[in-house]
Amino acid sequence: MSMGEKEEAVAQTASSPVGRSGGAAAWFRGIPIYLMILPGFLFFVIFKYIPMGGLVIAFQEYDPFLGFQGSPWVGLDNFHRLFSDPDFGMLLRNTLFLSGLNLFLFFPAPILLAVLLNEVSRSWFRKSVQTIIYMPHFLSWVIVVNITVVLFATQDGGINNLLDSLGYHRIEFLTDSHYFRALYVFQNIWKESGWSAIIFLAALAGVNPMLYEAAVIDGASRWRQVWHVTLPALKSTIVILFILRLGQVLDLGFEHVLLIQNPVNLNVADVFDTYVYRNGVLQGNFSYSTTVGVFKSAIGLVLIILANRLAKAFGQEGVY
């Protein structure tokens, strides 16, 4: 049978009742999978894609009583107001500095944690540790910050009481701006490292045990096994998550920063999220709030595209 005859036979089979019934049967078999996908699909459509239509108010002087169509168009005036704000440089510097700390201190923490847990041979001990380090993720930032206050308060904090009992001076951890960034990163690491390590542990679960056996036969130490087997198995996952993390470089999380922010440390603690809340939401200036959001999203999109191209240039899969 020639190639043309084969293609014609395949086309006839697909258009025949048997072929159609086979396709319908395959579709019905996939219904459970479609139902599992449906909640996530609806979430992104309802809460991510549909609200994007509201970005138009960044170019308007939005009035809720006039709506999208009745509000006056102001073009790029809101963006000009943002970039000419005297606090813009401070906000950008503070946001980028905290994001950099997250990238270089918080981001590697789950990787290190996953590698260490993967090296634990006793299953019961590993599972116990995993359960303990996952628990902080389910605490709200209100509870985490209150725990921090109890520990680091100047007068009644446990750490300062210990320092005082040892003859040292009390340290103003919560009111001295020099300690704000350290506390911010420490809280992030304590709360989210265990939960973030799950995806890396899942990647390590797919590593062929024969690779470790071969490394042992070749005389590789535990460190060499980690360096030549474990970390290469995590490389693609690390690259993808790092690229996605760059998309949130200007998004630090409003609640966390607001709760540990005070008038004394505002010069290092004020970021775009808290600025929008104070100067946009509380004052009812929704257009200005949306303008800041559009600026943050645009920067994140550019960084994702550049990082993805860079990953492709180095032979990695990338996000897309």
Automatic annotation (TrEMBL):
<dbReference type="InterPro" id="IPR000515">
    <property type="entry name" value="MetI-like"/>
</dbReference>
<feature type="transmembrane region" description="Helical">
    <location>
        <begin position="226"/>
        <end position="244"/>
    </location>
</feature>
<comment type="similarity">
    <text>Belongs to the binding-protein-dependent transport system permease family.</text>
</comment>
<feature type="transmembrane region" description="Helical">
    <location>
        <begin position="96"/>
        <end position="117"/>
    </location>
</feature>
<feature type="transmembrane region" description="Helical">
    <location>
        <begin position="33"/>
        <end position="59"/>
    </location>
</feature>
<feature type="domain" description="ABC transmembrane type-1">
    <location>
        <begin position="92"/>
        <end position="307"/>
    </location>
</feature>
<dbReference type="GO" id="GO:0005886">
    <property type="term" value="C:plasma membrane"/>
</dbReference>
<keyword id="KW-1133">Transmembrane helix</keyword>
<dbReference type="InterPro" id="IPR035906">
    <property type="entry name" value="MetI-like_sf"/>
</dbReference>
<feature type="transmembrane region" description="Helical">
    <location>
        <begin position="286"/>
        <end position="307"/>
    </location>
</feature>
<protein>
    <submittedName>
        <fullName>Sugar ABC transporter permease</fullName>
    </submittedName>
</protein>
<feature type="transmembrane region" description="Helical">
    <location>
        <begin position="138"/>
        <end position="155"/>
    </location>
</feature>
<feature type="transmembrane region" description="Helical">
    <location>
        <begin position="194"/>
        <end position="214"/>
    </location>
</feature>
<dbReference type="Pfam" id="PF00528">
    <property type="entry name" value="BPD_transp_1"/>
</dbReference>
<keyword id="KW-0813">Transport</keyword>
<feature type="region of interest" description="Disordered">
    <location>
        <begin position="1"/>
        <end position="21"/>
    </location>
</feature>
<dbReference type="GO" id="GO:0055085">
    <property type="term" value="P:transmembrane transport"/>
</dbReference>
<keyword id="KW-0472">Membrane</keyword>
<keyword id="KW-0812">Transmembrane</keyword>
